[in-house]
Amino acid sequence: MFASYLIGLREGLEATLVVSVLIAFLVKSERRDKLPHVWTGVGAAVALSVGFGALLTFTAARLDFTGQELFEAITSLLAVVFVTWMIFWMRRAARALSKDLRGRLSEALELGSAAVVVMAFLAVAREGLETALLFFASVQGAVATAEPLIGICLGLLTAVLIGWGIYRSAVRINLTRFFTWTGVLLILVAAGILKYAVHDFQEAGVLPGLNTLAFDLSAVVPPESWYGTLLAGLLNLTPQPSVAEMVAWAAYLVPVLLLFLRPRRPKPAAAPASSAA
At CA 68, angle to CA 66 and CA 71, rounded to 5? Predict the structure, then answer.
């Protein structure tokens, strides 16, 4: 449930900030007549994301055991790739995001109402599709399907409330720090998803070593205990992982965390223009 809440909070806040920038720009530009077009694009993006999530669930449910394991493994790998790209992209582009959105919206306003709808749709659809894919991958193997759904709904609701508070200037939040901490947590979630993908490939017979265990902590960390459930739900760490699962988990987690937490090098100052005679 916490992993799903984190996904909803992180992805939802990104989408909410995008919508807030678009709305604020239209209000300050006295183009309130275009607000319905923005909401039309946002609604279409939300509908597409929900439909994409439903399609993933429907497809997985119609496959046989081997096909289902392969499908879940491939979607998990895609989720890891997308969340890793998204974390580093947001870390690099967060400062210029608002300016870029305002520039694209200005161009869309010159082209007409349909362009505004498409621009708002594309700005939100990426976040929505990532959320659906990441949520689908993170809840594979979950015993209780209601808790992840409740978690992501609560995360999205929290994101909307925070975004509304920021828009109304009622809430002040250090977005750089927020995206850094949630980025670290999402890297942990992504490492667990990758570990689960390896397990699915082993279940499908694509990878060997399903019964070659790295360790057995079932006596110390019972799977039915609250802390065992927490480790499995958040980090996908199980008491009896295979060697291949743990190798994949560590091979992803360590270098990605180090790269993400590495201090950013300040951009070199521009050399002053020479005063030629």
Answer: 110
Q: Structure pTM?
A: 0.78
Closest CA to 77 of 191, 210, 186: 191
Domain containing 132 equals 2-144+154-261
Domain-located, residue 266: no
SS3 per residue for 198-230: HHHHHHCCCCCCCCCECCCCCCCCCCCCHHHHH
Tally the domains of the chain: 1
Q: Model confidence over 237-271: pLDDT tens digits?
A: 778 889 999 999 999 999 999 999 887 665 555 55
CA dist 203 and 69 (Å) reads 7
The answer as to whether 275 is a domain residue is no
Q: Decide: residue 215, CB within 10 A, 0-12 exposed, 13-18 middle, 19+ buried.
A: exposed
Chain-centre distance for alpha carbon 2: 14
- Cα–Cα distance for residue pair 69/192, rounded to 1 Å: 16
Distance CA 81, CA 85 (A): 6
In angstroms, the CA 44 to CA 164 distance is: 20
- Whether residue 224 lies inside any domain: the answer is yes
96 in a structural domain: yes
**Whole-number Å distance between alpha carbons of 30 and 52:** 35
Which of 84-88, 170-174, 267-271 has the weakest average pLDDT?
267-271
Amino acid symbol at 27: V
User: Which 3 state secondary structure label does DSSP give 141?
Assistant: coil
Q: Residues near 192 by Cβ (< 8 Å), separated by ≥ 6?
A: 3, 138, 234, 235, 236, 237, 249
